Automatic annotation (TrEMBL), chain A:
The lineage of its organism: Bacteria, Bacillati, Bacillota, Bacilli, Bacillales. Keywords: Membrane, Transmembrane, Transmembrane helix. The chain crosses the membrane at residues 6-21, 28-54, 66-85, 106-127. The keyword Hydrolase does not apply. InterPro entries: Spore_III_AC/AD, Spore_III_AD. This is Stage III sporulation protein AD. It comes from Paenibacillus montaniterrae. The keyword Transmembrane applies.
From TrEMBL, chain B:
It comes from the Bacteria. This is Stage III sporulation protein AC. InterPro entries: Spore_III_AC, Spore_III_AC/AD. The chain crosses the membrane at residues 6-23, 35-55. The lineage of its organism: Bacteria, Bacillati, Bacillota, Bacilli, Bacillales. Keywords: Membrane, Transmembrane, Transmembrane helix. It comes from Paenibacillus montaniterrae.
TrEMBL record, chain C:
This is Stage III sporulation protein AB. InterPro entries: Spore_III_AB. The gene is spoIIIAB. Keywords: Coiled coil. Residues 128-158 form a coiled coil. It comes from the Bacteria.
Length: 132, 65, 179
């Protein structure tokens, strides 16, 4: 029952943050960041298991390896960007957070270009426009 | 890295807050500020450690390296 | 079993660190407490010396020994040592004996350079001129020491508590960081 662990850590961290924030807000922020990273670390193992299954399915169905890699990278970038933006937002830097999110979107777009390319090519070959 | 680190950071924060008040009452505010900075740096070191761990994990799971 | 033993060692270390930090704090605090206490004793001794010179007209060595009675160690040593030096080596003047005694005793006391200067200046007159002049200088030294004492007491109130709490807090900090 890892969920109980997660909730317990969250509760304890919240209490400590309330306790420390009165005197030293910097340390409250440190606790917040630490707790966030720690909880993420706790669940990232589960994500790894899911991704392993997907990987296996993909190799069995014969999809080219590159596509899956790109999709996984995109998911990873989404997670990292979201997480980083949240952390920075906790520190009260809204503008930097929005820049991080923006950078994440652009990187996802760059990653997706080869796949979009393939889709468009497939579409073009399906349509009988070129022959007529 | 374990949960104790959360308590550690909170403990350092509380102790340094008390030290700060004591030093401030005795009119040594400059030293009080230095102590605050020192404690903050110690806390940052702990947090940096977990963040590095997290990034390593993300790299190995999502980006196949 | 081994885990338990390790826990015990850790606990022991934590307790030792706590103890040491608190002790450091108390030693630092005791410096301020001792300073004001020793200054007070020094003033008392000078007062007695003044009466001895004024009414008793006693010789200096006996006057010094008498004024050191009823005063605690490091400060009383200053007076007895001067008396000893004076009786042991006849050619030594009062001033020289006083200077030697101050130099020997000073490191043991919690007193500072300012008091040392006051005492040295007073000693340069002792045993030199007539009684009236000496008394005047004794009184002057007392006044200066009294103002020092007031200052020392203020510092004591301020810093003694600070050092005590800082020692313990620092020890707790170290323990927290090492867990």
């Amino acid at each position: 029952m890892e969920i109980i662990q997660v909730v317990g850590i969250g509760l304890i961290a919240a209490l400590l943050v309330i306790l420390v924030r009165e005197q030293k807000p910097q340390f409250a922020f440190l606790i917040t960041v630490f707790t966030g990273v720690f909880l993420f670390l706790l669940v990232i193992g589960q994500i790894g298991a899911v991704i392993n299954v997907i990987n296996e399915l993909a190799t069995r169905s014969g999809i080219p390896d590159v596509y899956l890699k790109t999709i996984l990278k995109i998911i990873g970038i989404a997670y990292v960007a979201e997480f980083g933006a949240q952390m920075v937002r906790d520190a009260g830097q809204e503008s930097i957070a929005s820049k991080i999110e923006f950078a994440g979107k652009i990187f996802i777009l760059v990653m997706a270009i080869p796949i979009i390319n393939v889709i468009i090519e497939t579409l073009l070959s399906l349509l009988p426009l070129g022959s007529s | 890295m374990e949960i104790t680190a959360i308590f550690q950071i909170a403990g350092v924060g509380i102790i340094i807050a008390i030290m700060h008040t004591v030093l401030k009452q005795m009119g040594k505010e400059d030293i009080a500020h230095w102590i605050t900075v020192l404690g903050f740096v110690i806390g940052i070191f702990m947090v940096i450690d977990v963040i590095a761990q997290l990034f390593q994990e993300i790299k190995s799971i999502f980006l196949f390296q | 079993m081994i885990v338990q033993a390790l826990m015990m060692i850790k606990l022991l270390g934590a307790v030792l660190i706590l103890f040491a930090g608190t002790a450091i704090g108390f030693v630092q605090a005791s410096f301020y407490v001792n300073r004001s206490k020793q200054l007070r004793q020094l003033i008392h001794a000078l007062q007695r010396l003044e009466t001895e010179i004024d009414y008793g007209q006693t010789e200096l060595p006996t006057a010094l020994i008498k004024s050191s009675e009823g005063i605690e160690q490091p400060v009383s040593r200053l007076f007895t040592l001067t008396a000893e030096l004076l009786t042991a080596e006849q050619e030594l003047s009062m001033n020289e004996a006083w200077q030697q005694a101050i130099h020997q005793v000073w490191d043991v006391t919690s007193l500072r350079a300012r008091e040392k200067e006051v005492l040295l200046r007073m000693g340069s007159v002792l045993g030199m001129s007539n009684a009236e002049d000496q008394l005047k200088h004794l009184q002057l030294a007392q006044i200066q020491l009294k103002s020092e004492e007031a200052l020392a007491r203020e510092e004591q109130q301020r810093y003694a508590n600070m050092w005590r709490s800082l020692g313990t807090l620092g020890a707790i900090l170290i323990v927290i960081l090492m867990v």
